[in-house]
Write a structure and sequence with these properties.
The protein is α/β, with parallel strands linked by helices. The chain has helices at about 15-25, 40-50, 60-65, 80-90, 105-120, 135-145, 185-195, 265-270, 305-320, 325-345, and strands spanning about 5-10, 30-35, 55, 70-75, 95-100, 125, 150-160, 200-205, 220-225, 230-235, 245-250, 255, 285-290, 295-300, 350. The protein contains ten helices and 15 strands.
């Protein structure tokens, strides 16, 4: 007999909740979006229109009053709320997925990880960029040894937004955890650590460039990994012309890839996984591999954000490790904390 679908509650129906989590949850076999928490009447209407039958709660208290009717909680609310809501979910006996960043500090992330282990519950962090097409393609190249020994990994998440958009993500209140370091920086650091292992030292430069901006909008992070690879990572809202998304230099050649995975733009446009050629990239966007005179196009592996929630569902049912663990998220936060300290003091930070 087919197992009952896991009933999912979603806290937050802003960009993360509406464009990423809700569509991916509903596209995953074995998951059912039961309840959405939002205090916005407009967002509530949007959720009920997009997902007929979904129940709406005006605040988290109302959701936790129904915790026994849920099997999984997803936290997609503003960064400042992540730790408190994750802890509350775990204490209520609910497995939980938290949008990145899990916390403000590695210590907070480790405390949540310990609580999840104590309760025997899944705690995972939504580092969806591990399922980007360029990242999956690079993983394959590394597994096959096609780059030889990797010397340097360059990764850029750049945008051209000359005017701040406002909102909590660009608030100067430290409690909001706004700015690009904790936003896009979470992605590029997580990818670097997943590819090349723990950080030994961290150096960073972080600036507030745009008139009216309150938080970092142009940041560079340099990570030296314990295995010797150097990662150079850029996140910026001030790039009028974009650099390559990846440039990976190795002893046998280089891999260079421009452009972003198409899944985010598809989700924002209302497209849904499972319909059409999800995650497929045209040949014109493929990266190249090799030396200056012999570089060849490399077919891009299809992006696969749905794989994250498939793995979460399997972990909740089996009790096995989720696709991104809280200790892994803590390692990312350790680098982000070091980068923030270095940007303030000008002194690099040794972690190991």
């Amino acid at each position: 007999m087919e197992a009952r679908a896991l009933r999912v509650g979603l806290i937050g129906y802003g960009l993360a909740g509406s464009a990423f989590h809700a569509p991916l949850i509903t596209a995953t076999p074995g998951l059912a979006l039961e309840l959405v928490v939002t205090s916005s009447a407009e967002r509530a209407r949007q959720a009920m229109t997009a997902y007929p039958g979904v129940r709406i709660c005006g605040d988290a208290d109302a959701l936790f009053a129904r915790a026994d009717a849920l099997d999984l909680l997803v936290v997609a609310s503003p960064n400042r709320t992540h730790v408190a809501l994750a802890e509350r979910a775990l204490r209520a006996g609910l497995p939980v997925v938290v949008d990145k960043p899990l916390a403000a500090t590695a210590a907070e992330a480790e405390q949540l990880a310990a609580l999840a282990e104590e309760r025997g519950l899944v705690l995972s962090v939504f580092h969806n960029r591990r399922w980007d097409n360029d990242f999956l393609t690079l993983c394959g190249l590394l597994e096959r040894g096609e780059l030889g020994r990797v010397y340097r990994f360059e990764s850029r998440f750049e945008r051209w937004r000359p005017k701040p958009k406002g909102g909590w993500r660009e608030s100067g209140d430290p409690g909001e955890l706004g700015g690009l370091l904790y936003d896009l920086g979470s992605h590029v650091v997580d990818q670097a650590l997943a590819l090349f292992g723990p950080a030994a030292t961290v150096y960073a430069e972080s600036d507030v460039r745009r008139p009216g901006a309150e938080v970092d909008d142009d940041t560079f992070i340099a990570v030296t990994h314990t295995g010797g690879v150097r990662s150079h990572l850029w996140v910026s809202a001030t790039a009028a012309q974009l650099g390559p998304r990846f440039r990976v230099l190795g002893s046998h050649g280089a891999y260079v890839k421009h452009g972003l995975d198409p899944q985010e733009s598809a989700l924002r446009a209302g497209e849904r996984p499972g319909l059409g050629d999800w995650g497929v990239e045209p040949e014109t966007a493929w990266g190249t591999l090799g030396e200056p005179e012999s570089a060849r196009p490399v077919p891009t592996v299809d992006g696969d954000y749905p794989a994250y929630y498939r793995a979460v569902a399997a972990a909740v049912r089996s009790g096995d490790a989720p696709p991104v663990t809280a200790p892994e998220a803590a390692e990312t936060l350790r680098v982000l904390e070091a980068a923030r300290h270095c940007a303030r003091t000008g002194q690099s930070v040794t972690l190991r």
